[in-house]
Amino acid sequence: MLIACGPQEESRNRPPSPDTSSSKATSDAGKNPSTPSGKREALFATSATLEDVENLYSARDFFVSVGRDSVVTHAANGTEIARSGIAAFEDGCVIAAVGSAPESGSLIWGKVTQKPAAGLEPETWTLSIVATDTRTYKQRWSKPLVADSTEALGCPDVREATLTSDEKWLAYGQWVISLADGTSRALGDGMVPRAVGNTVLVFDGVCANCINGMTSVPITDPATGRTLFSFSEHDVIGDLSDAPGKFATSSDGSTLFIARRISGSPLTYALQSRSLVTGKVNWEVKGVSYTGPVSQRVTLAENADVVIFPDLAAANEQGADPEGRQKELGLSLSDGKRLWAIPGLEVCAANAAGVAVEANNQLVVLDPRTGRQLGYSPDRTDCGTPLGEYSYYSDDGALIRILPSAE
Question: Is 341 within the bounds of a domain?
């Protein structure tokens, strides 16, 4: 049996309906414009119909679907590239798909091998990490993480995996693993690594200063474990360790964008840009709130120099929306300057050419720099499962384009 245990793509809940009639950012753009380049499908067009899909794992320009009978490598538009029977992954669990193209990509998975009891010798388990070529489905390498363990050891027992931005390192359970050859380094029981940019944050799995006397959390070099700098702010640490959706990193792994809570009365919420090279804060935008943002999801449209984040002051008693709706803000990545604000949105995905959102039970695409509406689809009421510029809908198996081409 193949078990999904890694950071597979997930759909999101439907947001409250917005009132975009009062927003200057909304336009009367057509429902179904073509992509700017004209080389790919029209926006919201069905690119492919996928079958036998239980979980999806997105890489940079391709994805892998795992079903009941097969594991399939797909191009970004859903075209099938390669296929393997599920038997090759028996007693394992997929962790992640990595690589910039299916021809050079790898499917990273955990394999549990059981050795039965033999007389006085108890049964034992071995957990190995395996890399399989996503084009040929031949094994690239396999390395044991834990060998001959007498404790029940399996994929469901291991925490969610995270990848560094350069996809050279995998943080999994208590290990930091090289994706070049599977060489691993164990941090010890109770210590949990999380990849953040091209670095690895190490915490005790609960909080910064509750257990083990930790008063700060180190940001480390994944190759050596050397501490580069430390986070001392308890609320920043909590967001990084416990809620990965509350932060995003630049594609080169050098900059962190994080939603942080600052203790006090009333609470202050902030979006912070911080260097992952020096640890220094580049800029911070604060907002006083009595309940905090409904969502703290951070989304980057990096090549458009935009970060999308919920309005930090939307729940302020003096300035709350009459219907209690959260506003989404488009801010400049460079300095945090506010570019636009629209209420009642749920962000799905973004690139340099567009921001896909849910609004009024429809799928809408906005211009990342201005918030102007570029198009909408009344046929899709939610984000589905975003996969780069596309999204998968499990009800009918459709893979549709949700973002204009960024080429």
Answer: yes
